[in-house]
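Troubleshooting entry. The earlier prediction with fe (ii) ion gave an output that would not parse, so I re-checked the input for stray whitespace and re-submitted. Clean input:
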Amino acid sequence: MPNLTQETLSMNSITRRDLFRTTAGAGVAFLAAPSLAIAADEPAKLYTLPKLPYAFDALEPHIDAMTMEIHSQRHHKAYVDNLNKALAGTDWAGKPIEGVLAGLDKLPEKVRGAVRNNGGGHYNHSLFWQLMSPKGGKPSTALSKAVEDAFKDQVNMFKLLKEAAMTRFGSGWAWVIVKEGKLKIVSSPNQDNTLMDGSGTPLLGIDVWEHAYYLKYQNKRADYVDAFFKVINWDFVSERFAALAKG
Ligand SMILES: [Fe+2]
């Protein structure tokens, strides 16, 4: 098994200039969205599978190594490959993914569905890997205050987020999103997210596709959701909230 502990996601670095370049033409709602895409200074190119910022087994026993490996190296890779295929030969090829998802209605109709599914899959999973860490931690003061304002406390936020995860029928995601500095919990089907309808930017999300948990948890989605809560990378989420709340 490759040791990925020294490797990091280049997507973590965010500058104000990148935010604006990344989201140019994508609409006001996305001006504060941290980029999950290729560097803005590079010419258009193919999307690539990001490397995990930890080893496949780093989240054991909560999320097992085989699930992490298959989920990232096969499922996420398929989204990347299919996204590249769908956009090949169009002006959108390799463009920052946030803008692509915000502009789905501008895409040629024949590729729109494939880009929605695979572009959504690429964005959602690129975020998801960074949301987890073996080191734990706790939310920043600013994020804790936003959580208290929206949900009373973190315990209640987890309760509501778990409800969203459990009531999402079939495959999808449960989200904590940010809109104008305020937090809200929603869920989405398939690989959709709230960039697509402009209702907010994902801050924290739980993949509730069976491929995310079936090997270890089988049909026990609730146990997987509880396990996810134990590996949240609060430093990353707090930094992301700070960037998004600046608007
Ligand atoms: Fe997934």
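This one parsed fine. The chain has nine helices and three strands.
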